Amino acid sequence: MIKLKDIIVVLLFMVITYSCTDNLFNEEEGYLNTFQSFWDILNERYVFFKEKSVDWDAVYENYYTKFEKVTSDQEAKKLYQEIIDLFHDRHVRISINNDYGISYESELEVPEISFGMVYGFYYLTNLKEYDSLHLGQLPNKIAYLRVLNNFKGISGSSLPLSDYNYENGFVLDLRDCIGGYTTGLELLDIFIDATRIAYYEQYRNGINRQDFTRKFSVVLNGKGIISNSIPKVVLINDNTYSMGNFMASVLKDLTNSTFVGQKTGGGGGTINSVYLPNGWGLTYTFTKIYNLEGQTIEDGINPDVEVIRNNDFWENEHRETGIDPQLEKALEVLQRND
């Protein structure tokens, strides 16, 4: 069993190690050699070939001859886009000039939530806006905490929770949270009442695609500031991804929260980035995360109460009024527990 801070140190060491060995920029490298490096790196390090049903050997056979004929960046980009789309994995991407130019093109059209309008419509007061989260007071003695995209680590116990009344409930909003740092899990210490195993993690440890370490348990040190007797609702949607998905899994296992919204978008592992020989960056998942039942969380977390977004409503009436059917359902759930 290892602690969260220990796993962070290990991951940092691995990222630095990969960076030192792979960040070899060479403008003269050809398209074929770059493809070979791209294929080799994923072949030896990527963890979800089986889950994504990707025949990686067939990819090599089909695309090697195509890259032999490539004569421009535009042609190469088109081929890499075809390959990356096979994964259905938003963590697998290629960056060009520090921009994620090639990534999985999800078919989902996800309307953005107008959170400012939502705050006004539902009378959110005492709003504190941090770099990584928003904290506010809803009517009827309900507190609201929203985790932002690119969430950075902040301990929940450092928040001024004594300034808020959550006697009748607490809403944690993970909607549209699509990424962040592993230290983001420290936010959850306020909901966990003791030192608990939070999840299991597994690494590739061989060149064969099914060579993995055993599963390591990782613990969180709970502060128990918000007791289990306080009803809690976690809001999730199909754009809750990566760290948002990770946090949802831990909360589902370790708290008595009710999940409202839609199945999360998934993303169940730690990512690493390296340079390809031509200077483009490659990002991929190199660990698997499992919940306490031993199931990978890559495919997403299901809600307890499903509230599907109607795109037409969210793009029109929601933007005009701030009405939020998913938040309304969360408040309804809390009223039932009152």
From TrEMBL:
Molecular function as annotated in GO: serine-type peptidase activity
Pfam families, A to Z: Peptidase_S41 (PF03572), Tricorn_C1 (PF14684)
UniProt cross-references to Gene3D superfamilies, sorted A to Z: 2-enoyl-CoA Hydratase, Chain A, domain 1, 3.30.750.44
SUPFAM superfamilies in UniProt: ClpP/crotonase
Record-linked SMART domains: TSPc
Coiled-coil intervals: none
A Gene Ontology biological process term: proteolysis
Tail specific protease domain span: 110-308
Protein name in UniProt: S41 family peptidase
Organism: Plebeiibacterium sediminum
